[in-house]
Design brief:
The protein has 325 residues and is α+β, with helices and mostly antiparallel strands. It has a domain at 23-207: Immunoglobulin-like, CATH 2.60.40. Helix content is 20%, strand content 35%. The chain is built from five helices and 17 strands. The strands form four sheets. The chain has a seven-stranded mixed β-sheet with strand order 4-7-2-1-10-13-12, with no helix packed on it. Strands 8, 9, 11, 14 and 16 form a five-stranded antiparallel β-sheet that branches. Strand 12 (163-164) and strand 13 (167-174) form a beta hairpin. The radius of gyration is 24 Å and the shape is globular. The chain starts with a helix and ends with a helix. Residues 206-215, 234-260, 267-306 and 316-325 have low confidence and may be disordered.
Length: 325
């Protein structure tokens, strides 16, 4: 019975720490303004009001990364003075990384503005050019108010009926992981310099994330197989318990980071399934240890899970074999 309870505990330990953690932040306002150029590229202007809820678990807020549609972006510019540094970041996806001028603690709101120039946003369909834009979403953060404003000049149709001041707009709160999609169609003749080779594709927006998702599924499958083998093999009934003489503590907070203060984004309708958020977070949180203990019970990281499972298999199997002798 203890063996099966230990197996259940192992599976629970494999769940991300964030599944049980309290919220670190809340985004009060998240706005994106879209202004298209004659070649179908866009000038994107962002405004974010980011409220820090917790500065103890991961430390104060020092930087964030915001997902952008793809790697074909340039002219990154800080508009607000509280941005110390801004630039493109490729971290399992396409992001703009914002480093602030100071540390922000619990209860403080950092309001920041920035802009960039983005290409590969449209798909040509006959005599029309279709834009499908999903701003960066946040898997671990709620957004109280998200707004996309799109210059309405020349628009043939869209998936919103809201228009004011010459702009189409989409407005909604977003729960964790929820996304807002703006779809706009233009007559192809509206643009003077469209380039057919610069159409948005799922490959442009995936940036390798699909492989990460597949790998994750394979990992979970293998773990399931190992657990089933442990639970169904009669040879293990004579074992002395899971993990040997010391308790096994599995630390699922990766050595390379995992405190998520990030988002990702898509440009084409196909990329909604291909694009996924990579791990990221605030500066200073990459090596924090949430489960300190004596040296003999030192935390094991996610990288060590498989060696530990196979060692457990060995420890439970050997006593059974000696009993048969």
């Amino acid at each position: 019975m203890k063996k099966y309870l230990a197996l259940i505990l192992v599976l629970l330990c494999l769940l991300p720490i964030s599944a049980f953690a309290k919220d670190l932040d809340k985004i009060q306002n998240y706005g994106v303004s879209v202004q298209l150029r004659e070649d179908g590229t866009a000038d994107l202007t962002y405004h974010v009001d980011w409220l820090v809820l917790d500065d103890k678990t991961e430390g104060p807020l020092e930087w964030v990364k915001i997902g952008i549609p793809n790697k074909h972006a340039d002219s990154f510019a800080a508009i607000s003075q509280n941005i110390k540094k801004i630039g493109y970041l490729s971290d399992g996806g396409s992001y703009v990384k914002i480093t602030f001028d100071r540390k922000y603690k619990a209860g403080e709101t950092v309001s920041f503005d920035f802009s960039l120039h983005q290409a590969y946003l449209y798909v040509l369909e006959g005599d029309t050019a279709r834009f499908s834009f999903t701003p960066g979403w946040f898997d671990k953060i709620e957004v109280k108010n998200a707004v996309v404003r799109w210059n309405a000049a020349g628009v043939q149709s869209s998936n919103t009926e809201k228009e004011a001041g010459g702009y189409l707009f989409w407005q909604t709160p977003l729960h964790k992981g929820e996304r807002l999609r703006a779809e706009v169609v233009y007559p192809r003749s509206y643009f003077m310099q469209l380039d057919e080779t610069q159409q948005a594709t799922s490959e442009e927006n995936d940036d390798g994330e699909g492989l990460g998702i597949v790998f994750g599924c394979v990992v979970l499958f293998v773990i399931g197989v190992v657990v089933i083998c442990l639970a169904t093999n009669d040879n293990y009934r004579g074992g002395s318990g899971f993990g040997g003489g010391h308790p096994v503590i599995i630390h699922t907070h990766s050595r390379s980071g995992g405190c998520v203060r990030s988002s990702c984004a898509c440009a084409s309708c196909a990329c909604a399934c291909a694009c996924a958020c990579a791990g990221g977070g605030r500066a200073g949180c990459s090596k924090k240890d949430f489960y300190p203990g004596p040296k003999q019970n030192a935390p094991a990281h996610t990288d060590d899970v498989f060696p530990m499972l196979f060692q457990a298999l060995k420890n439970t199997k050997e006593p059974a074999q000696s009993a048969e002798k």
